[in-house]
């Protein structure tokens, strides 16, 4: 079981580490079916985005482990595997993006379970990274909807003062 998990982990990590690489340079990570679908310029990211390549927990981890741990005496182990997977699925984080074609606005949203303190803390760290990336790419975080409480901590005093002055002019009440 441990050997199988190491193989799967290594493969998934190789895909992650090489998302921008030409997929044909990583044939060992791809099935014959996926190789038939590749264009010469496809990156691993392109192949994942099209869903030609899928990283599947159920197919690559759950099914082989449940086949290995068959029998009534190992039912508790299989149930524990299901419980761990359910817990991890409900607490995984992702950044959803929404954008307007042509005007440069990109909105991010990180769905969280408000009763999961650890999840909320991890989401805050992700927000820190998103805000830093926006600045590093030359963007601003004030956007079309103004500056809310969640953004204030990421702005310098000059930006806040400029926004407050503008707001006072257009909406003095």
From TrEMBL:
InterPro entries assigned: FAD-bd_oxidored_4_C (IPR004113), FAD-linked_Oxase-like_C (IPR016164), FAD-linked_OxidoTrans_Type4 (IPR051914)
The keyword Flavoprotein belongs to this UniProt entry's keyword annotation: yes
Stretches that traverse the bilayer: none
Protein name: FAD-linked oxidase
Keywords of this entry: FAD, Flavoprotein
Keyword Flavoprotein: yes
UniProt GO MF annotations: catalytic activity; flavin adenine dinucleotide binding
Pfam families membership: FAD-oxidase_C
Record domain FAD-binding oxidoreductase/transferase type 4 C-terminal: where: 79-172
């Amino acid at each position: 079981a441990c050997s199988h998990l190491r193989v799967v982990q290594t493969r998934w990590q190789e895909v992650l580490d090489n998302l921008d690489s030409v997929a044909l340079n990583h044939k060992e990570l791809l099935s014959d079916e996926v190789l038939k679908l590749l264009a010469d310029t496809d990156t691993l990211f392109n192949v994942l985005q099209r869903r030609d390549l899928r990283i599947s927990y159920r197919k690559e981890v759950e099914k082989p482990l449940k086949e290995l741990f068959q029998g009534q005496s190992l039912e508790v182990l299989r149930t524990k595997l299901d419980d761990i997977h359910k817990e991890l699925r409900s607490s995984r984080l992702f950044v959803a993006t929404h954008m307007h074609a042509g005007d440069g606005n990109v909105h991010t949203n990180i769905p969280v379970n408000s009763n999961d303190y650890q999840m909320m803390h991890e989401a805050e760290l992700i927000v820190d990274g998103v805000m830093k990336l926006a600045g590093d790419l030359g963007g601003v975080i004030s956007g079309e909807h103004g500056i809310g409480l969640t953004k204030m901590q990421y702005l310098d005093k000059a930006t806040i003062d400029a926004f407050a002055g503008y707001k006072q002019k257009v909406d003095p009440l």
